[in-house]
Design brief:
This protein is of the alpha+beta class. It folds into 2 domains: 15-94, Glutaredoxin (3-Layer(aba) Sandwich), CATH 3.40.30; 104-141, no CATH class. It has 4 helices and 5 strands, in the order ββαβαββαα. Helix 1 links the parallel strand 2 (17-21) and strand 3 (43-46). The longest helix is centred in the C-terminal third of the chain and has 13 residues, at 107-119. The chain is globular.
Length: 141
């Protein structure tokens, strides 16, 4: 599934924010921390991965949530948001005005933040490969 919110999909939900995740998934942890930092109350749906032997992430039910069988999936008012990096930005933009500010307003700082979030996402086998080098230089030390 392509990243971002899917307004064309409506999933059953009982709360404004719901998160389909796995306790040991790095991307799930990243999204949980973001939601907690923003003070967003969310309903958690733990999904067992193939590694546990239960194969819940490829179950008929979960494939309606994410046909790609990946976690996490953030659901906002019934609409899924795919890809953890997209979830962080989406949640930060939709949190109340009194939430902690997680997205810098300065364009250079935002670019630097995007760089480090992407680098920490471990895309592919080489976590450094394909990363865009920031145009911002960090001060020494």
């Amino acid at each position: 599934m392509a990243g971002g919110v899917r307004e064309d999909i409506e999933l059953p939900h009982t709360q404004e924010w719901e998160l389909y995740h796995n306790d040991f998934s790095l991307c799930s942890k990243k999204t949980r921390v973001c939601l907690m930092e923003l003070g967003l109350d969310f309903k958690a749906h733990h999904i067992d991965l193939i590694e546990t032997g239960s194969y819940e992430n490829i179950s008929r039910h979960y494939l309606t949530v994410n046909p790609g069988a990946l976690v996490p999936v953030l659901v906002h008012n019934g609409h899924p948001v795919y890809e953890s990096h997209e979830q962080l930005v989406y949640a930060a933009k939709h949190a109340s005005s009194d939430a902690n500010e997680l997205l810098p307003t300065d364009p250079k700082q935002l670019e630097l933040m995007q760089y480090w979030v992407h680098k920490s996402s471990l895309v592919g086998d080489d976590p450094i490969a394909g990363c865009v080098k920031p145009r911002v230089t960090l001060p020494p030390g």
